[in-house]
Every structure is written in C-alpha cells, then in structure tokens.
Amino acid sequence: MLYTLINDFNCYFTLCFDLEQIERLLKDFEDDIDSQIHFNGSPRSYKGIIREPLSFTFPKTDKERDIPDLNLHEGRLFLNIKAYNVLNPLLKDDGEFLPATYENGEAYFYIPFRVAEDVEAINKTLSVENEWNYFNHLVFDEDKVKDWSIFRMRHDGYKGVYCQENVKEAIEQAGLTGLYITTDLANIFPEEQSSVSKPN
C-alpha cells in the first residue's frame, strides 16, 4: 500500500532556509532557476553546488507548537538526526541527503529523485482530475513503483511525497513527529484530520 506524507502544521513549526547562506552558496548560479534550492523542488542533485551544511531554523510563532523530527518543504524532507538514523537505510537509494544544521544540532535535507511519470506509474484510468488539473482521486500502478521507498510526481510540481508501507511503519515505530500519513493519495492538504493517521 502507498501513502502520502503531510506536514502537521497544527502542532509543529515549519522550517525556514537561511537566505543569506543560500545567496552566498548559490552566487555563481543566481541565473539558474533550477539551482535555487530554497524554492525549486525539482528532483535534482546539489552535490558540488551545496558545499557546506544547509542552515535551517524553525521560527517559533507561538508556544503551542514544537520543532518536529520530520518536516516537508516543496516535496523535500527535513530530518533531524533521530529521523535520519531511522530512515536513511530506507531512503538512501531513492534520493540525496544533504547535511544540515538547525537549532537543536545536526540534521539532513532529503531530495527524493524518483518520479512516477518516469515509469508511467499514474493510473490514468482510475485517477480523476478536477477542472484545475489537480487530482480528486489518485491511483498509482503499485507494481511500477514497488522498488521505490519514496517518490513524487511531475504533475503537481513535485510537491506531493508518497511512500511505501515500510517507510510509514518506520516513522510510526520510532515515534517520529511532524507528519500526518494518509492512504488518500490525492489529499495533500487534508481539512479533515480524522482522515489521516498521526504517527506521533
């Protein structure tokens, strides 16, 4: 079975890039939109471009929320060291981990490389699009993605993040915080939280 990963905005803060660092690191690539990691979520490698740990912060906008173990940003995944130790064995073959730091120490920023359209994995017969070309109902051919632990799709600008059951189970068993997990693959911004599983 496949799942969608969704940020828990109600209980956890959202990461921010250090824009001064990004400007310094990417000064030779300022005219290359594809290299702008802080807003371009495409599945590309930054090896040889990002040469130092990325610096993140979680601005504390209120006292009711916490810093998460996991946080999504434009289809990429922030992992603190606890989350990295749990998920690295599962995710390492399907993307790239970039070293990072944040308020509480060492972290990683993960870019999933696998794309559903590359293997024609979107079931166009069973999936249903609305008038804005977003999916109201989304079905993947699971046999075509069975060797991937995590993947995205080009159709939504790589923003949705989909995973296999082993990733879901690893998150839940380790008690990693920050995400909701749902089997409704088209539901990346759930209004009804009862429709999703909160693993923490």
What are the key terms here?
six-stranded mixed β-sheet, four-stranded antiparallel β-sheet, globular, single chain, 200 residues
Tell me what the structure shows.
The two termini are 20 Å apart. Strand 8 and strand 9 form a beta hairpin. This protein has one domain. 37% of the residues are buried. About 2% of the residues have low confidence. The protein is 14% helix and 26% strand. The strands form three sheets. Strands 2-3-6-7-5-4 form a six-stranded mixed β-sheet. It is α+β, with helices and mostly antiparallel strands and 200 residues long. Helix 2 packs antiparallel against helix 3.
Give a short synopsis of this structure:
The protein is an alpha+beta fold. It has helices at residues 19-25, 81-91, 165-174, and strands at 2-7, 16-17, 54-57, 70-73, 76-80, 95-102, 105-112, 128-129, 135-137, 150-151, 161-164, 179-182.
| Strands ordered across the widest β-sheet | 2-3-6-7-5-4
Rg, Cα atoms, Å = 17 Å
Shape: globular
- The number of helical elements comes to 3
Poorly predicted tracts of residues = 191-195
Measured distance between first and last alpha carbons? 20 Å
Mean pLDDT: 91
Strand portion = 25-35%
Could you give the order of the helices and strands? EEHEEEHEEEEEEHE
Largest sheet: 6 strands, mixed
- Count of discrete domains: 1
Number of strands: 12
Topology:
Layout: E1 2-7, E2 16-17, H1 19-25, E3 54-57, E4 70-73, E5 76-80, H2 81-91, E6 95-102, E7 105-112, E8 128-129, E9 135-137, E10 150-151, E11 161-164, H3 165-174, E12 179-182
Parallel strand pairs: 3-6
Antiparallel strand pairs: 1-11, 1-12, 2-3, 4-5, 5-7, 6-7, 8-9, 10-11
Helix pairs in contact: 2-3
